[in-house]
Write a structure and sequence with these properties.
heterodimer, A: alpha+beta, Ubiquitin-like (UB roll), DNA polymerase, domain 1, 2 domains, B: alpha+beta, Aldehyde Oxidoreductase, domain 4, five-stranded mixed sheet, 21 helices, 27 strands, 23% strand
Chain lengths: 178, 730
């Protein structure tokens, strides 16, 4: 059976079993390895991608359920030429990642959260971002989200802050002498 | 060479004098030649084994440690760049290959020195024997929180300073002026008298022919401009845009994918395997039986893992099928009561102190097995052909990986090439002593044509662990009339390093002993190693003594640390940060703990409440004295991460053993802290100037006792066995 997926703007015809998880179609069929395998049971969020704008744990989403969908992975989050989104810039400014393995999923989950709720409360963040980071980057994840949310609050509402090329006001930094 | 002074020419004295410290000078020409062969590109000059400089003035530092998020791929180059007087904007790094010339000699030396504390390094020339030891022990370890305090201090700073001297000499030679009239700054050498300057890139070819000093003059702390500043980490951009390539991400033409299952009862064997049910399935190539495990090989991990689950395979547990956590604890208790004791510490007169004591207190503590649960499941890509082996993997010890593969295949170490990749978490699971995943992967590869990537499912990773060992520890202490401890007796499972079980010297009579109670359950280092469980035991029992004495737990500890001003200062700092003793919101209480591990002292205060019957940690204040710090922001991140790692274990962490095997297999039953239960964390770094300590591990030990001591203050319940999830609170 063949499935039609648009991934990061490119259309792919995939001849795989319908119950193959999207994660393994991305990683082992298309060699898009930015999306990570963590648990296989939708418990950790390392494999989070966006399917039609919604954050989805791709290890538990069969390819057939994504047939015809528009999919964004970490490789497609930034703009052309490697431009980073405001959120990715905040991630860099706050030096969020440690080992970094969970961060693709973390960024995809937070991007989806902010698209839906540009100024999330702490509770919204706790509920919306249940990804596991074994290194414990959580305090910095929260700080980076806060800095972007503040940037959104102070900028022109017509600009979409989750897209590359947005203004760079989210550059709050927790690091001294950076 | 004419301008080199005698002092700087080390040929002949290098073998005894400390060439090790530069990483330059044993059979100097051979080592450097080998390094050049591996690392020098056109237009670059490798000047010592640790650094190369290109014609366009880019400095590349060669780092012999693994990056697993602790920031060492940035902090070590910072140390070299500091002494080199490099322009930081023009500095980059590469990972050193898993080759003998990059063995961790300095680390071996660290281990050979008592307590792992590195004394003032200029007074401690290394010698040939430690180098040989490092070579034969195949150590290229990233562990023990040692990278900065050994490789950084012994190799990076010394190499940076030595190379700076060479560049100055090269300039002096070129301009025909005395070297002492030249100075170096921002990757350039200046001769102010003649107003001339040259870039390091221009001078590098001349310097590359010279012999580096092993004892160059190093910068004073007050002159640092790079060390002590928070430089952004080199590894961050690739981890933010998804381009970082971990071991599990490797792809190459003809690559096969394999899923693996070992005997669920540790140490068991494959009794029978019938590949019938998976033969002919789409994408399945073959089933491999390596004796202690089976692997299904194919083209896609989902296909091979699904087939593995359906495979008809039986294991022989080897007689350990009746072992459980209960029988293990019972065996440990019997060993404590009747086993042969080994004394670790014995001081003062225990019998006299026992008589003098007004009150005695005793308690038994327990900590369970813990899995590492690093986010990137174990994996290894291997190609075995023509008596040679090539490996692509993220590990904490490249040379041990090479040795494990050679040993598994019965080939020479020189016939194994290891390509080192970033780690999706290590925490000890990818360390030198626990190379089971390398061993199994290369044995699978040996039965196949072409390269294979063997991937552990999360369940296989968790159930084939190298666990933090379960441990029982018993204490007895006596207090005098004022409540001060006059004796301390402790017997626990497993001989551990002195630092982990150490208590304040102010307790005059001490006896600390261990007994052995071996099991078939594999164990290994887990972030902060023995200090993780012993920190909990000791700092909880001290809290019990404080309560018995009727003294505030901070004041009690402060008094015990009267002879140790450095440790007392860290404790005072944490108390001050938290406003210890001040009013708290209704339903909250605080606990405090202090532990020295890996030569860094960390004190933490935790504020907790009981929310819906469970412990909730609201805030943690953390004071840390690592002596000095290279990258403060990275150090702070390590404290945050260390606290969260330890808190996860304190609240939820438990691998239980039933029928000889691990019960928990994935995050739903081995729970992790997430954003929702992460406390606010405040960190203060104390740069006391003491010998440098570690960063990756010392943040972990104090958090469990800080939390359980707070739980006691709040509820009156003394938690003597972790995790907290197994206890019920009003």
């Amino acid at each position: 059976m063949s499935y039609q997926l648009t991934i990061n703007g490119t259309s792919h015809e995939l001849d795989v079993e319908g119950d193959m998880p999207l994660l393994w179609a991305l990683r082992d069929e298309l060699h898009l390895t930015g999306t990570k395998f963590g648990c296989g049971v939708a418990a950790c969020g390392a494999c989070t991608v966006q399917v039609d704008g919604v954050a989805v744990r791709s290890c538990s989403c069969p390819v057939e359920a994504a047939d015809g969908a528009i999919i964004t992975t970490i490789e497609g989050l930034g703009g052309p030429g490697g431009a980073m989104t405001t959120l990715q810039e905040a991630w860099t400014a706050h030096q969020v990642p440690q080992c970094g393995y969970c961060q693709s999923g973390m960024l995809m989950a937070v991007t989806a959260l902010l698209a839906e709720n540009p100024d999330p409360s702490d509770e919204d963040i706790d509920k919306g971002v249940s990804n596991v980071c074994r290194c414990g980057s959580y305090p910095r994840v929260r700080a980076a989200i806060r800095s972007v949310a503040q940037a959104i609050a102070t900028q022109d509402a017509t600009q979409d802050p989750t897209q590359a090329g947005a203004t760079e006001v989210g550059e709050a930094t927790s690091a001294e002498e950076m | 060479m004419g301008v080199l002074s005698r002092r700087n020419v080390l040929v002949g004295t290098a073998l005894v004098g400390g060439g090790l410290m530069v990483g330059v000078k044993f059979s100097p020409d051979k080592r450097l030649a080998r390094a050049r062969e591996m690392l020098e590109n056109p237009g670059e000059n490798l000047i010592t084994t640790w650094v190369k400089i290109s014609q366009d003035n880019i400095i590349t530092v060669i780092v012999p440690h693994a990056e697993m998020g602790q920031g060492v791929h940035t902090s070590l180059p910072m140390m070299l760049a500091e002494e080199l007087e490099a322009d930081w904007d023009l500095v980059t790094m590469v990972q050193a290959p898993a080759e003998t010339i990059y063995a961790n000699n300095a680390l071996v030396k660290g281990y050979l020195l008592d307590g792992k504390e590195i004394p003032a390094f200029l007074n401690q020339p290394a010698n040939w024997s430690t180098y040989q030891l490092g070579k034969y022990m195949d150590m290229q370890v990233t562990g023990g929180s040692t990278s900065v305090r050994t490789t950084g201090q012994y190799a990076m700073r010394v190499a940076g300073a030595a190379v700076k001297d060479l560049l100055i000499q090269a300039a002096a030679q070129k301009w025909d002026v005395p070297a002492r009239e030249c100075s170096a700054r921002l990757s350039q050498v200046f001769h102010n008298k003649s107003k001339r300057s040259a870039s390091y890139g221009d001078l590098a070819p001349g310097a590359a022919g010279m012999t580096a000093s092993a004892s160059p003059k190093l910068k004073a702390r007050d002159d640092f401009t790079i060390i002590g500043t928070s430089k952004p980490r080199f590894d961050i951009p690739g981890k933010v845009n998804g381009s970082a390539t971990y071991g599990i991400d490797i792809h190459m033409p003809g690559l096969k994918i394999a899923a693996i299952q070992a005997s669920p009862v540790f140490g068991g064997k494959v009794a029978r395997v019938n590949s019938g049910p998976v033969t002919g399935l789409r994408g399945i190539e073959t089933v491999v039986n390596i004796g202690d495990a089976v692997a299904v090989v194919g083209d896609n991990f989902w296909r091979v893992q699904s087939a593995l689950i359906n495979l008809d395979v039986q294991f022989d547990g080897g007689g350990n099928e009746s072992v459980s956590s209960d029988t293990i604890y019972a065996t440990q208790v019997r060993a404590i009561e009747a086993g042969k004791r080994k004394s670790n510490v014995s001081s003062g007169n225990l019998d006299e102190a026992r008589v003098a004591a007004v009150t005695t207190v005793d308690a038994e503590y327990r900590a369970p097995y813990l899995a590492h649960a690093q986010m990137e499941p174990l994996n290894c890509t291997a190609l075995v052909e023509d008596g040679k082996c090539e490996i692509w993997v993220g590990v904490q010890d490249g040379l041990a990986t090479r040795a494990a593969a050679a040993n598994a295949l019965g080939i020479a170490k020189e016939d194994v090439t290891v390509h080192l990749l970033p780690l999706g978490g290590g925490f000890g699971r990818r360390g030198g002593g626990v190379m089971d995943f390398i061993d199994r992967s290369v044995r699978v590869a040996a039965q196949l044509d072409g390269p294979v990537k063997v991937i552990w499912s999360r369940e296989e990773d968790m159930r084939q662990g190298a666990y933090r060992p379960a441990c029982v520890s018993r204490f007895e202490a006596g207090l005098d009339g004022s409540g001060k401890p006059v004796f301390w007796s402790n017997v626990h499972i497993m001989d551990e390093e002195a630092e982990a079980v150490h208590i304040p010297d102010s307790v005059a009579a001490q006896i600390i002993e261990s007994v052995e109670a071996p099991t078939h359950v594999p164990y290994g280092p887990w972030r902060s190693v023995a200090s993780s469980q012993h920190g909990f035991f000791i700092e909880s029992f001290i809290d019990e003594l404080a309560h018995m004495a009727g003294v505030d737990p901070y004041d009690y500890r402060r008094d015990l640390l009267g002879d140790d001003p450095r440790m007392a200062h860290v404790l005072e700092t944490a108390a001050r940060m938290s406003g210890w003793g001040g009013a708290l919101p209704e339903g909250r209480a605080r606990g405090i703990a202090v532990k020295k591990s890996f030569a860094t002292i960390v004190a933490q205060v935790a504020e907790v409440s009981i929310t819906q019957g469970a412990v909730r940690v609201h805030k943690v204040w953390c004071a840390a004295d690592p002596g000095d710090v290279v990258n403060p922001d990275t150090f702070r991140a390590q404290m945050e991460g260390g606290i969260i790692f330890g808190l996860t274990a304190a609240l939820y962490g438990e691998i239980t053993i039933e029928q000889g095997r691990a019960v928990q297999g994935n995050f739903p039953d081995y729970k992790m802290i997430t954003m929702a239960d992460t406390p606010e964390i405040e960190v203060e770094i104390i740069r006391s100037g003491a010998p440098w300590g570690g960063a990756g591990e010392p943040g972990t030990p104090p958090i469990a006792p800080a939390v359980t001591n707070a739980v006691f203050a709040l509820t009156g319940t003394r938690v003597r066995q972790l995790p907290l999830k197994n206890h019920e609170f009003g």
